[in-house]
């Protein structure tokens, strides 16, 4: 099992970069690269995977079940506890595709 990385610098404040170990700089750069890649992935793609300009589409309960790979009972339970955004159109439940993707795929 990989040992948890410990910070090499223990103090905060102004730092002379010549005194920072190269290992610490490399680790910081890898972290920055990772975060940058994730942000680019999130913000450069349309809200839907493989279906551009469909974020304003409304989904049925069955479509949300397939999309999230959840049972009907779980969908209704999550509706009741407020964790799945929905609206009623007449007597039917509809789910805004963009909101579903933001909540479950992008965590917003």
Write the layout of secondary structure elements.
Layout (H helix, E strand, L loop, with lengths): L21 H23 L13 E2 L1 H8 L3 H9 L6 E3 L2 E5 H8 L4
Antiparallel strand pairs: 1-3, 2-3
Give a verbal description of the structure.
The chain is mainly alpha-helical and 108 residues long. The protein has one domain (18-108). Helices cover 44% and strands 9% of the residues. It contains four helices and three strands. The protein has helices at residues 22-44, 61-68, 72-80, 97-104, and strands at 58-59, 87-89, 92-96. It has a three-stranded antiparallel sheet with strand order 1-3-2. Strand 2 and strand 3 form a beta hairpin. The longest helix is centred in the N-terminal third of the chain and has 23 residues, at 22-44. The protein is elongated and about 65 Å long. The model has no long low-confidence stretch (mean pLDDT 77).
């Amino acid at each position: 099992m990989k040992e948890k990385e410990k910070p090499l610098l223990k103090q905060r404040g102004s730092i002379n970069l010549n005194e920072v170990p190269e290992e610490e700089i490399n680790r910081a750069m890898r972290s920055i690269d990772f975060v940058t890649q994730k942000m680019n992935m999130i913000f450069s793609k349309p809200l839907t995977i493989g279906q551009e300009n469909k974020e304003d589409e409304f989904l049925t309960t069955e479509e949300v079940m397939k999309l999230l790979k959840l049972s009907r009972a779980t969908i209704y339970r999550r509706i009741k506890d407020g964790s799945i955004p929905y609206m009623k159109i007449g007597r039917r439940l509809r789910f805004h595709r963009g909101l579903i993707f933001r909540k479950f795929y992008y965590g917003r």
